[in-house]
Design goal:
heterotrimer, A alpha/beta, B mainly alpha, C mainly alpha, A: alpha/beta, D-Maltodextrin-Binding Protein, domain 2, 2 domains, ten-stranded mixed beta sheet, two-stranded parallel sheet, 25% strand, B: mainly alpha, MetI-like fold, two-stranded antiparallel ribbon, 79% helix, globular
Chain lengths: 264, 285, 278
């Protein structure tokens, strides 16, 4: 009986090893920015329909992982959504493939519809702690922010400037979780990628400018950050083709249809 | 026919026997080699006793998270330990054995439910209740404590029952024969004889509570903040690692591994205490 | 004033009993909460279709594959190691300092939080060994994680084999290894299988360690070097990112049913084992 058990185990291990030997197609791994991940998946799916000799795998992880894994070779293409790329990215070829607005959002029950940049700064710093100070009801403000190192957070803080996040701000680790937290809590305020705004949350006007694609393209809405694809060394072969596809009219259309803005 | 000699078999088995300990050493080696250089560079005191955690400004103090981890674990103990131990005594002393044999595995099933499911229920059910009735953001120390308290119940109940049942029946019979009630027997005899096992179960539960990650991220709110009340949002050591790991580079990343080092050391200490307690029980047996 | 012990006794019964009741109610609530919302979503299509739009629509087929492959790989690696370790500890050596160290190491390994396993797996398997986010990295990490469970349960199962069996085998001239192979392992097998099943349960539900090592790709893997997403990770992402509450509940329900099935069969095996021995 023990022998049979061993036999099964050995067979299974062999099967597992053999499965590792079935690779014939070119394979590209993308990793990084969670904000761009859904778009990358869509783009990859489209690309693979016409180029069936390529397999593109998309991982999240965050902008830092994007830079790191492009450097280490764990991924061929890194994705990052920072206003300013850090030192570690200096050896990487960076291509801006899209732009993304950052919407400051509140619960739909909230009466407040417009904030100035100064008010946003004061709220996130904790100087303004009650909605009545900015024209809302008499309820305390729950601030929700992203974790340190997040591309969206550093872009948000760089553009608003002078933010020293208040200590008791809730921290969530993705656009989606911020959206869920805001949707569940009527007193809260946060910020998410413009493409992820839905009916469960309400984007605010900032300095009287709407957070809409039009205003962002016109350059009126100020909270905008670029999205980079990062490649180590020179772009070659399928990687070059794929990034070319992303920048092509077809690729940019997919990006726009999903709520991001074209690179140019 | 013998393919391998008896001695050979023994050698191979001995090699495999070192797999667990070598895995442990490998883990220690890698976590320490990633985390320790940072601690030396940044200074142990500043790292452990400052509550300024601002990676973008190069400030890495985890004091607030250590405090939060301790509070959350303590809270989980307040919820889980009395409930679990009470449950264990009830099931092993008051309930017929065959019923206990059905209920105990059922409770152990609680341990098999993925922690993300607990976290999700915490977000969907518990946090709104707390927010609406007590104020605050809902995602808080309190919700984390309750969810973790529930999560450690199976560990506490299962190990406690095992150690209570290990108390020789003759002890109980002696006490009952002297006219003591079951409760008196529990407080005067059984508890004393099974004490180290119960303590071990609580310490193991403690370890699980300190180490839990996903459920805590979901329900604790994650602010880097020394809590002033149970309704404040907090971030534990584990949550800190999992939250920021994906976005961290350079020093920041090393600081997260250093957080792992602190966690690792705490867990090893707790386990050593628990295994001494369990050993003691086995020796007694 | 002295309260009569009988009243204290009644009070104790009431308090202990309600604690027990509360615990059981919580268990039932959790399972029903998930099943009630999730069961209506589960259908053959849900289980066998590919997800569309990051899981917003469609099924969970690739995650089902991931959920089967990762624990399987973990077991292929951990079971022989764990079982041999327990055979060595219980049959081939006496209690000494070496076994004490091995046991202490096993206990410590069992207590290490999954996030630490995740960090380790990421830095060791994914980066240092260059396996990338893959089934291989995830499976190896899970294998290390469940190793102590397998060692402990197998050791208990082996120790439970009556001494007399061994004596008979030895008196017939069998060697130690022959005794292990022909007498001890067959008799301890159901107990060992229980430990293995419990490990499957743990690896199916694991999130933190898996997300850092196996990644979260939604494609059907074609080799052990491909990234995969397990149901637990899929649930976490769906629920956290608010992609689709409906599919999240469906995934959670499938996950809970899978875990319950695995655990129930483990207990069934164990009981059969106990019944057979008596």
């Amino acid at each position: 009986m023990a022998k049979r058990f061993l036999l099964i185990v050995t067979t299974l291990s062999l099967v597992a090893i053999m499965m590792g030997c079935g690779k014939g197609k070119a394979s590209i791994t993308m990793a990084g920015s969670t904000a761009f991940q859904p778009f990358a998946e869509k783009l990859a799916d489209q690309y693979m329909i016409t180029h069936n000799n390529v397999i593109i795998t998309v991982q999240g992880g965050g902008s830092a992982v994007g830079i790191q894994s492009a450097n280490s070779g764990a991924a061929q293409i890194g994705m990052a959504d920072l206003v300013i790329l850090p030192q570690e990215a200096k050896d990487l070829t960076a291509t801006i493939v899209a732009k993304d607005g950052i919407a400051v959002v509140v619960n739909p029950q909230n009466k407040v519809a417009n904030l100035t940049s100064d008010q946003v700064r004061d709220i996130f710093n904790g100087k303004i702690a009650n909605w009545k100070e900015v024209g809302g009801g008499d309820i305390p403000i729950t601030v929700v922010s992203r974790e340190a190192g997040s591309g969206t957070r550093s872009s948000f803080e760089q553009i608003i400037s002078g933010i020293n996040l208040k200590k008791d701000a809730l921290i969530q680790d993705s656009n989606g979780t911020i959206r869920e937290t805001i949707a569940n809590d009527a007193n809260s305020i946060g910020y998410v990628s413009h493409g992820l705004v839905n009916e469960k949350i309400k984007p605010l006007k900032i300095d009287n400018q709407d957070c809409t694609s039009d205003e962002i393209i016109k350059g009126n809405y100020k909270l905008v950050r670029p999205i980079f694809l990062l490649v180590k060394g020179n772009m070659e072969g399928e990687i070059k083709n794929f990034i070319g596809f992303v920048l092509s009219e077809e690729g940019q259309k997919i990006i726009q249809a999903q709520g991001l803005l074209p690179a140019k | 026919m013998k393919l391998i000699s008896e001695k050979g078999v023994q050698r191979i088995l001995m090699l495999t026997a070192f797999s667990a300990i070598s895995a442990l050493l490998l883990i220690a080696l890698f976590i320490l080699s990633e985390g320790l250089p940072f601690i030396f560079k940044y200074g142990l005191k500043d790292f452990l006793f400052s509550s300024e955690w601002q990676p973008n400004l190069g400030k890495f103090g985890i004091f607030a998270m250590i405090v939060a981890s301790l509070w959350v674990t303590f809270g989980a103990m307040i919820v889980g330990a009395p409930l679990g131990v009470a449950c264990a005594f009830f099931l092993s002393e008051y309930v017929p054995r065959y019923i206990m044999r059905i209920i105990k595995p059922t409770i152990e099933l609680l341990a098999a439910i993925p922690s993300v499911v607990y976290g999700f229920i915490g977000v969907m059910v518990l946090a709104p209740i707390i927010r609406d009735n007590f104020g605050g953001p809902g995602l808080s120390l309190l919700s984390a404590s309750i969810i973790l308290g529930i999560m450690i119940l199976p560990t506490i109940i299962s190990i406690s029952i095992d150690s209570i049942l290990a108390v020789p029946q003759s002890y109980r019979e002696g006490s009952l024969a002297l006219g003591a009630t079951i409760w008196q027997t529990i407080t005067m005899v059984t508890i004393k004889a099974s004490k180290s096992g119960i303590i071990a179960s609580i310490i193991l539960g403690l370890g699980r509570a300190i180490g839990e990650t996903m459920a805590v991220i979901m329900v604790a709110g994650n602010s880097v903040n020394i809590p002033h009340s149970a309704l404040d949002s907090v971030r534990t050591l584990t949550a800190n690692i999992a939250l920021e790991m994906s976005y961290a580079t350079g020093l920041h990343r090393q600081a997260l591994f250093a957080t792992g080092v602190v966690l690792f050391v705490v867990i090893i200490i707790l386990n050593s205490i628990a295994s001494v307690a369990i050993r003691k029980r086995m020796v007694k047996k | 004033m002295r309260i009569h012990p009988r009243y204290i006794q009644r009070g104790a019964v009431a308090i202990l009993g309600s604690a027990t009741l509360l615990t059981i109610l919580i268990l039932i609530f959790i399972i029903f909460f998930v099943l009630e919302k999730g069961l209506p979503v589960i259908s053959l299509h849900f289980l066998t279709d590919n997800p569309e739009d990051m899981g917003k629509a469609g099924g969970i087929f690739p995650t089902l594959i991931g959920t089967i492959l990762l624990p399987l790989l973990a077991l292929i690696i951990a079971s022989p190691l764990g079982i041999f370790t327990s055979v060595y500890l219980s049959e081939f050596t006496k209690e000494n300092n070496v076994t004490k160290i091995i046991r202490f190491g096993t206990d410590c390994l069992a207590g290490i939080p999954s996030i630490i396993f995740g960090l380790f797996g990421y830095i060791f398997f994914v980066v240092t060994l260059g396996f990338g986010w893959s089934i291989l990295s995830g499976g190896l990490t899970l294998a290390v994680m469940v190793l102590p469970t397998i060692i402990r349960t197998s050791e208990e199962a082996i120790r439970a084999v009556p001494k007399s069996y061994r004596e008979v085998s030895f008196s017939l001239g069998a060697s130690r290894w022959q005794t292990v192979k022909k007498v001890i392992l067959p008799n301890a097998l159901p107990g060992i299988v229980t430990g293995v099943m419990l490990s499957i349960g743990r690896s199916i539900g694991e999130t933190a360690a898996v997300i850092f090592t196996a990644g979260s790709s939604l494609r059907i893997p074609t080799s052990v070097f491909d990234s995969t997403r397990t149901m637990a990770v899929h649930f976490y992402i769906l629920a956290r990112e608010g992609i689709s509450a409906e599919n999240a509940y469906g995934t959670a329900a499938t996950l809970i049913i899978a875990v319950l099935l695995v655990n129930l069969s483990a207990y069934w095996l164990m009981n059969r084992f106990i019944a057979k021995r008596n």
